[in-house]
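Hi support team,

I'm opening this ticket because the web form for multi-chain structure prediction keeps timing out on my end. I have pasted the exact lines I submitted so you can reproduce it. The total is 228 residues across two entries, so I didn't expect it to be a heavy job. Is there a limit I'm missing, or should I split the entries? Thanks in advance, R.K.
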Amino acid sequence: QKEVEQNSGPLSVPEGAIASLNCTYSDRGSQSFFWYRQYSGKSPELIMSIYSNGDKEDGRFTAQLNKASQYVSLLIRDSQPSDSATYLCAVKGGGSNYKLTFGKGTLLTVNP
Amino acid sequence: DGGITQSPKYLFRKEGQNVTLSCEQNLNHDAMYWYRQDPGQGLRLIYYSQIVNDFQKGDIAEGYSVSREKKESFPLTVTSAQKNPTAFYLCASINGPNMYGANVLTFGAGSRLTVL
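Hello R.K., no limit was hit. The queue was backed up. Here is the completed structure from your submission:
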């Protein structure tokens, strides 16, 4: 069973701080990695995708991937109360397999 | 507007009844998925389909059935054999044969099923 593990929450940070979310995965052949944000009662929405080792920045969000360590993270700079949500890490295995495996998510609360 | 439409948004069912959740997409996507989400949990894959008239079991297919007669439609039936059906059900789709690159998994708004 391929697994995706996320750091247990909830995570609480003050407004303006950096929020750090972590994810590890078991399938060493995984190719694609995604971070989804899910507000309570809503469906997930993609906020970042990353495919190569290193950092990928998009506005206040930075995704970091280390395939050797089987580790992917998401940093949210200048956290805002509107960032309060559950963040889901998703991993796609190698090959033409269409399946995404999701972690259980980390609940982030940004306090004003 | 292109997107994925799930219906109904809320559904109540008595124990022992089958119920079918609708999922329609007008994105011309090849692959479609059904996920289940329980409170405080991530998404678990029920079934997925890469092409019309073909589908594969996911990690928790027992008690569920699907069909893919049209590219646009991928309905999910929750049967009476599913022991704990109360959950949030999410349909998703993705274009192309390979997710590497710009392909994105897009979700519908979800259907919340409650068994009374």
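A quick check on our side: Chain A has a mean pLDDT of 92. Let us know if the file doesn't open in your viewer.
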